[in-house]
Every structure is written in C-alpha cells, then in structure tokens.
Amino acid sequence: MAAQPKRGGVYLPDRRSASKPDNGILARITSSPVVSRGKQAASDAAFVSKKLLRSTGKAAWIAGTTFLILVVPLIIEMDREQQLNELELQQASLLGAPPTGAANK
Predict the structure, then answer these.
(1) What 8-state DSSP symbol labels residue 53?
(2) How many CB atoms within 10 Å of residue 103?
C-alpha cells in the first residue's frame, strides 16, 4: 500500500486510464446501440414532457385569469340580483301584497 497515493488519510486505488479499455460485460452492454437508442428516447421523452408541462401551465394561467376577470364578476352580480329579488319579495309579503308568479318556485 505504500505505492498508492494517500488522499485525505485514506489510501485510494489508482484510477483506470482511458488507454486501458474495460472489456467487461457491463462496458459492452452500456456501449451497445440498443442502450444508446434507449437513452436518446428517454431524453426525447423528457424534453417533450417538459415542453408540454410548460405549455399546459401557460394555458392554465390564461384560463384562470380569464375566469377571474370575466366570470367571477358575473357570478357576483347574479348573486346580488337574487338577493335583491328576495328582499323585494319579503318586503311585498310584509306589506300584504300577493306574491308574484315568478317568485313562487
């Protein structure tokens, strides 16, 4: 162990150099064309998913803000109108007027 360099108080083995290729089974599998095509397909799928997620987020933002600007005020106004109609009906019943046909539901 005296020949190996000491780094941080631990003796580490020498790294394999690029001049000595590893001919093991793992090296042959990882360098096969099937694996490289699989890696490329996974990379392409991740890219498309990221783009789709980003565009879906933009569409959700547009739909949400449009809903808040256009639909929520309409809902509030319809609720006010309904409350006003109920108030008029209540006042009319207190004064003794017969209820109208539209209010009898």
Answers:
(1) H
(2) 13
